[in-house]
Write a structure and sequence with these properties.
heterodimer; A: 436 residues; alpha/beta; D-Maltodextrin-Binding Protein, domain 2; 19 helices; B: 340 residues; mainly alpha; MetI-like fold; 2 domains; Bact_solute-bd_prot1 (chain A); ABC transporter substrate-binding protein (chain A)
């Protein structure tokens, strides 16, 4: 009796699995003729793949919601651990001409290098969506002849995230308004307070020289390239001064925890409390919360050294390789609508680039329990308003930026070089790029 | 069938004298021609698949890579101008190239040498009378089944500078933590460890097979001569394994010089470290082609340089093989002569 019951159940499961398997297979490949009802394109079973990186905030039910609204659509989400990895994947697959997802997320730092090859992406411009995003977000993704290659998702207005418990132990104020007042000013102020902090604490002031440099360079309009994309390189005062300032603070003043961002040690440091503050764009909130789970004391202050700053932010593109451009564009459009972006923000802190979302009461009233119930919505809106410089990121931005980041890693993390010898290697690496 | 008929009409004169009965000419001519074709062509057809596949996936890419290496070629932009040997000159002049070459050879030596030595010793142990022989023999092959990327991920956790298990253990016995990612030599040791983990068992099985082919009378003779276990191992087993050792050395040279997965997965960035501590030639190639430069032309040039290096080392290996193989023959005649 029991055996038979189990057999029946087993057979049932096997059948369901078979049917599901068939459905998936048909959706993946050639889907002509799989429309069961035959009532036209709308009911066709379509499987869409979407490739993102880090935390986009789509896994907390957003994709499921879309599938419920559109029963014929199945979405597969591929998530890369880092933006670099996603960039490698995307480049390789564009070059190979296959294997691309129907929607590929791209980061603003490597947007420009893809803009040169915009023929690989569907034109997403749509009069209906005029005014959905803030202007510079759209302008950056629009080619000279008016093609829009991606829909903006989030932007990265930066605040300062800090560990209130470590602040308290070192005798610094813990209330986020007081911390904001304490850090108000330029980067020197930030480093000065850092020196006071490390004098009384075992922890470092910030996580890595690289991240701090990132925050500073993102306040410079033309760090590596002129507005017409002519490379100006790294051998000039703007970059060198920032490099020197970061190295002095990180190594000489021992403010840095000496961790390379995204390394195993960096992730582990969220649990061990190795540092007290970090530059904190909206999307970083989700990463901190994910890796510092169980650690109490994280908070975010409405302040950023040297005025405002924007770090990162992404777009959703639809490569021309997709077999389902219509469905993919519809999904990208839906995901980047203000309502959905607000939900993504609530989930992972990816701050909306959409005008309507930025001014919504829903955003302004949003708080984040992990960050001591900080009004993250209001804080990030303020931080977004404080952003004054829009750095020009041309096709070689990413490559040039990498040479300085490597130099900082050598000094700050690996300690294989001192500031001067590492800078020489950066100059050499820049030369090897062969840009001039 | 239709394709083989034409030659029949072309060769009647040659076939004529050999076919005696006129009425049966038609079928027997066909048969003989087919038979002859069968004898002449079949061997080539039998070996053809290998050469067809080789031409497609070996020779064509090789030639095409050479073609790409002579051009400005962008990953996304495609073919550009013909530049001759400029890419080769550019690449060789970059200091990074020398660093990559150094790293590749260092990791290769750190992995291959201990690996071959360990494999011989483990094989000798497995060759002895053990209980549950098959279990142990399959056991050493187990790491080989693990995907290199998966192994690299786990090992890079073990070798994390701050929070890694190995440094925690070292700290437990009072040894200073080793900076696995910052220090060049330490990073090479860590990567070589991954390679050894994966390949030692594989080479062990090859050695084991060779050991079992050693004639047992040699050992009997050695025992009569009063040789103990160690003497037998060094005077009988190792000399008899020489050809196999050469084979293993050549295959691990080719594999070692092309090492990619392990260094690529050694950190989150996959670019061989900020100071290029563990950037190998293949990583350098990848960085040129898919990194900031996106220059397929230069990447292809590196691919060809690597190919030439491997050919060169292959030739050196071959020369040594011939000398050692003959030395092995001498050892064999000596020993067998001793028995008789």
């Amino acid at each position: 009796m029991h055996t038979r019951k189990w057999l029946t159940l087993g057979a049932g499961i096997a059948t369901v699995a078979l049917v599901a398997g068939c459905g998936g297979g048909a959706g993946d490949g050639d889907d002509t003729g799989t429309g069961s009802g035959g009532e036209g394109g709308g009911d066709e079973k379509v499987t869409l793949t979407i490739a993102t990186f880090n935390e986009f905030g789509y896994d907390d039910g957003l994709l499921d919601e879309y599938m419920e609204l559109n029963p014929n659509i199945t979405i597969e989400h591929k998530r890369a651990a880092t933006a670099d990895e996603a960039r490698d994947n995307l480049n390789t697959r564009i070059a190979a001409g296959s294997g691309l997802s129907d929607i590929e997320a791209i980061e603003v730092d490597w947007l420009a290098e893809l803009m040169q090859y915009s023929e690989n992406f569907n034109d997403l411009s749509d009069p209906e969506l005029e005014g959905r995003w803030i202007d510079w977000k759209v302008d950056a993704a629009t080619t000279a002849d008016g093609q829009l290659i991606g829909y903006g998702t989030d932007i990265g207005p930066e605040g300062i995230c800090y560990r209130a418990d470590l602040f308290e132990a070192a005798g610094l104020p813990t209330d986020r308004a007081e911390v904001a007042a304490l850090l108000e000013g330029d980067w020197d102020t930030y480093f000065e307070v850092g020196k006071q902090f490390v004098a009384k604490s075992d922890a470092a002031w910030f996580d890595s020289a690289g991240a701090t440099y990132q925050g500073m360079i993102n306040q410079v309009e033309n760090a590596y390239e002129e507005d017409d994309d002519t490379p100006i390189g790294i051998d000039h005062d703007t970059v060198k001064d920032i490099y020197d300032a970061v190295v002095t603070a990180s190594v000489d003043d021992e403010l840095s925890a000496g961790l390379r961002q995204w390394s195993d040690d960096w992730f582990a440091a969220f649990q061990s409390g190795a540092f007290a503050t970090m530059a904190c764009p909206g999307w970083m909130l989700g990463i901190i919360e994910g890796n510092a789970a169980g650690v109490e004391g994280w908070d975010i202050a409405d302040v950023f050294p040297g005025g405002g700053g924007n770090w990162g932010g992404s777009y959703l593109t639809v490569p021309t390789h997709t077999e389902h451009p219509e469905e993919a564009i519809a999904l990208a459009k839906w995901l980047t609508a203000p309502e959905q972006q607000l939900k993504a923000f609530a989930s992972k802190g990816t701050f909306p680039s959409q005008v309507e979302a930025q001014s919504s009461d829903e955003l302004l009233s949003m708080t984040n329990p992990f960050f001591n119930d900080a009004p993250t919505g209001e804080i990030l809106v303020n931080r977004a308003e404080a952003v004054t410089a829009t750095p020009h990121k041309g096709p070689n931005y990413f490559a040039i930026h990498q040479t300085v980041q490597d130099a900082l890693t050598r000094v700050d993390v690996d300690k294989t070089d001192d500031a001067a010898s590492s800078w020489d290697k950066a100059l050499q690496a820049y030369e090897e790029l062969g840009l001039e | 069938m239709a394709t083989v008929t034409p030659p029949r009409q072309g060769t009647p004169a040659a076939d004529g004298p050999r076919t005696p009965a006129p009425p049966r000419t038609q079928p027997s001519r066909l048969r003989t021609t087919l038979g002859r074709l069968d004898v002449r062509l079949s061997p080539y057809l039998y070996i053809a698949p290998f050469f067809v596949v080789f031409a497609l996936v070996g020779l064509f890419p090789l030639v095409y890579t050479a073609f790409v290496s002579m051009h400005d070629w962008h990953l996304l932009g495609g073919q550009g101008e013909f530049v001759g040997l400029d890419n080769y000159v550019d690449v060789i002049q970059q200091p990074t190239f020398l660093v990559a070459l150094r790293n590749t050879f260092s990791i290769f030596l750190l992995s291959s040498v201990p690996q071959v030595l360990a494999a011989i010793v483990v094989a000798a142990v497995l060759d002895a009378n053990l209980r549950a022989k098959t279990f142990w023999r399959m056991g050493v092959l187990l790491p080989y089944v693990v995907m290199p990327v998966a192994a690299a991920l786990i090992f890079s956790r073990l070798f994390a500078d701050g929070a890694g298990m190995i440094n925690t253990l070292l700290g437990g016995i009072g040894i200073e933590p080793i900076r696995w990612h910052a220090d060049t030599l330490a990073s090479h040791v860590a990567i070589a460890t991954m390679v050894n983990f994966r390949w030692t068992g594989y080479n062990t099985l090859i050695f084991l097979a060779a050991m079992q082919a050693v004639p047992r009378d040699l050992y009997e003779a050695a025992v009569i001569d009063g040789a103990n276990r160690f003497r037998q191992f060094f005077s009988v087993t190792v000399p008899m394994l020489r050809p196999t050792i050469i084979f293993v050395v050549i295959t691990s040279t080719i594999g070692g010089l092309q090492i990619f997965d392990e260094p690529r997965m050694y950190d989150q960035y996959g670019r061989g470290g900020a100071d290029k501590q563990w950037m190998t030639i293949t990583l350098f190639l990848y960085d040129l082609g898919w990194g900031p430069q996106k220059s397929f032309g230069r990447a292809a040039a590196v691919a060809w340089i690597l190919f030439l290096i491997i050919v060169l080392i292959g030739l050196v290996n071959f020369a040594i093989t011939r000398r050692i193989a003959s030395a092995g023959d001498i050892a064999r005649t000596k020993k067998t002569g001793g028995v008789r």
